[in-house]
Amino acid sequence: MRSMLLCGLLILFLIPVQVNAQQQETLFANDINHGGFGSLVYGVTYVNGQAAFLRGTRGAWVIRFSDGHAINIGLAGYRTKSNFDTVNWNRHDNEPEMRTNYGGFELEYVNNSYRLIHFGAQTLVGSGTVRYQNGGDFEKSSDDYFVLQPAGNIHLNVTHWFRISGSVLYRYSANVNLDGTGNSDLSGFSVSVGLRFGKF
Predict the structure, then answer these.
(1) Residue 72, Cβ neighbours under 10 Å: how many?
(2) What is the pTM of this model?
(3) Is 12 part of a structural domain of the chain?
């Protein structure tokens, strides 16, 4: 009886030791580094078939894996710096000028971020606003629309805390409902340069 009791106690002590000896599984392992950055974006975009200056700001949480690959999760906002004319205006009164801004959630993958020059890809999902100003007499002068913007990036590591990025983006716009402006008018390519400051 006493030997059976001792064997039972020994088993109770051995089981936890065997379980604890196994590596604990977690969502983020210890060899993953975390950081973040803020970025100023300057570029040129096409709206209504016309070139317009583009400005933007980005902020992201950086998740960098032990092999050098990274995922950036954050928010971004972009806006046209200059006004531009509508091209599909079919009314007889004065043609208004247009301006637009958009932003949303942004997810970016960076390949081999430890290298001097490396590449990545990102996608923005969000919404925008287009508005008329300086001319025209209309009941509805602004509208909100959906935006999906994929991009390809090239990065240059200047210092440990500063990077320069070049991007080619395509903005897909949907649900535009405004006189003289449609989805295709607000969709188009952009080229931009980003100045990133932070911990990478």
Answers:
(1) 25
(2) 0.79
(3) no
Note whether residue 21 is domain-resident.
no
Provide the residue range defining the domain that includes 57: 39-199
Domain count, the chain: 1
- What is the chain's pLDDT, residue by residue, as a tens digit (200 residues)? 545 444 444 444 444 444 444 555 555 556 899 999 999 999 999 887 788 899 999 999 999 998 889 999 999 999 987 666 665 556 656 667 788 999 999 999 999 999 999 999 999 999 999 988 765 566 778 899 999 999 999 999 999 999 999 999 999 999 998 877 889 989 999 999 999 999 99
Q: Judging by DSSP bridges, how do beta strands 97-111 and 33-47 pair with one another?
A: unpaired
